[in-house]
Amino acid sequence: MWTIAGTLTPVPALDRLDLVADPVAAALRSMADGARLAVAEIDPALADTAEFCAHYGSPLEASANCVVVAGKRGDTVRYAACVVLATTRADVNGVVRRRLDARKASFAPMDDAVSLSGMEYGGITPIGLPGDWPVLLSPEVAAAPELVIGSGIRGSKLLVPGEVLAKLPGAEVVDDLAR
């Protein structure tokens, strides 16, 4: 039972892989905890967190956002995903830049984030990202009993325990990631 679902109708994610992006579906099939996740169809126009929470009655503090960051040092670009509660922001220029050993870090350009992840902008999720990307989680995300996150597309959301995200390939819980 998902207490954060609001008016959503969550169903087992493995039963509705048509509601997630292809890389997310592949990851869910291979996850030991895949059966613990649910998915709910939403209006794609309401995918942005504030609008989603207001419309569907899901608490903002139970939503987590995933942003793709590009860190550059010389000609080398390293990507990472940062997952923080929607009520906070990722410390891209401090904690993330240092973790990526980059001189400069910023949100990845939309076209790069979409093409490299295989997901829709506004729906990018930490599940199913390229295997060589670190997935940086704030401690609050990892400890959350249940969260709403993207599904790789704008037309649905995943419901997931934070501990499942902490077990993802490349996942690291990073102190002070969120401000």
UniProtKB/TrEMBL annotation:
Residue ranges of every copy of the YbaK/aminoacyl-tRNA synthetase-associated domain listed in the record: 44-168
Source taxon at top rank: Bacteria
GO-annotated molecular function: aminoacyl-tRNA deacylase activity
UniProt protein name: Prolyl-tRNA editing enzyme YbaK/EbsC (Cys-tRNA(Pro) deacylase)
Species in which this protein is naturally found: Saccharothrix carnea
